Amino acid sequence: MSKHTPTPAGRDIELAFSEANKILDIINTPEAALSDEQRKWVSSNVADNFANHVNRGFLDYRKSVTETDDFALTDWYGQGSILRDIMGREYIDMLGGFGLYSPGIRHPKIVAAAKAQLDRSPQYSQEMLDPLRGQLAKVLAKLTPGDLQYGFFANSGTEAVDGAMKLAKLYTGRRGFISTTGGFHGKSLGALSLLGKSVYREPLLPLLGGVRHVPYGDADAVEQLLKIADSVGSMDVAAVVAEPIQGEAGAVVPPDDYWPRLREICSRYGVLLIADEVQTGFGRTGKIFGVDHWDVAPDIICFGKALGGGVVPMSGFFSTAEIWSCLEPNPFMHTTTTGGNPLACAAALAGIGVMLEENLPGQAAEKGRYLLQKLGRLKEQYPHILKDIRGKGLLLAMVFENDELGYKVVSGLFKRKVLTAGTLNNSSVVRLEPALNIPYELLDEVLARLEDTLQNVSHAI
């Protein structure tokens, strides 16, 4: 349990007003003008605030608390691939906000677009046609594979997956889905039904009915389920849902024939194919979209995370004109008040521009190969610690012999001012998911600190 003991809550309007103004005064103070007293106030209060008002369980898992001797590490300032807390401590960011920061933290062109839109209108009226949403949809229609033409924008990847599930059910008139073990698709009740990790599912059962799970990368298992359903006349599968490369399971790359076979099998049985590109999309794996590695066009594609350029939350799902037509008689079948707002659209449009101008997919592919080569040498030096390395582009994972070793390496890197973490579905697997434009000098520095960490861990076991 955390050492921070929750205190009773109670209504105090004056205190609420005072506390809001206290942090706003600090936010509105130029960084160079912040006093030591202000900095210490923020850093000393953050852990207690989490314990009393967010979830004290987080404090047992956050290295910013467990590995920090004095003031808790605060998420305060970032630029490019460097994070700095309010006390001035700097870290190399190899976590990338779990895939948010593909163009780096606070990319100036994306920030500028969001600021410019903020000076016009931060939200839309809900009645007038909003030009940025329409333009972003057009841009994405030209960017996505195949004949994907229409889309809906939301705020999180989970919402995008939920929307894709609704679309598949509406179009096909069926209620079932095939998902994969180890898959991560979000934690709303709909997306959670697809998620392939029991620890998050079991306490909330029953979830949506008709969802079957098969091993990831096993196209034969998908075909077998569909063949049985078809042969007994009980075909109730609306769609097969999978990640091009599994993210939270630990950068798991499927066999090369997996996605082409999924496409062929789904087409043969009249089942939709949904690609969850929330983590793999927009250059992360070395291609614009993960499915581009296998030249496959899904029927529905979901994206999020990097779509907002690391500046504004943004997600969406897109499909073909034929499938989308089921939403046209009543376009209010799926709505959101804030999804696709002008700020998010401006950030997304600027983020796509940055991705193409800087060739972020190409950078990810090249730097991913570089890291894999260097990590391979470390694996040869420390085979008793580092069991495997895998992934594509800059969605990479280091696989350790057990959870304890993985934690020791993450902790060692943190103490050496490198920020990374284990994957959500597998704590013995440590992700490397930096900005796609991270300089080679920083990669080399991370590799040097990693080697020092592995050497230290090796001596301790």
UniProtKB/TrEMBL annotation:
Xref: Pfam families: Aminotran_3
Keywords (A to Z) from UniProt: Aminotransferase, Pyridoxal phosphate, Transferase
EC number: 2.6.1.82
Cofactor section: pyridoxal 5'-phosphate
Entry protein name: Putrescine aminotransferase
InterPro entries tied to this protein: Aminotrans_3, Aminotrans_3_PPA_site, Class-III_PLP-dep_AT, PyrdxlP-dep_Trfase, PyrdxlP-dep_Trfase_major, PyrdxlP-dep_Trfase_small
PROSITE patterns: AA_TRANSFER_CLASS_3 (PS00600)
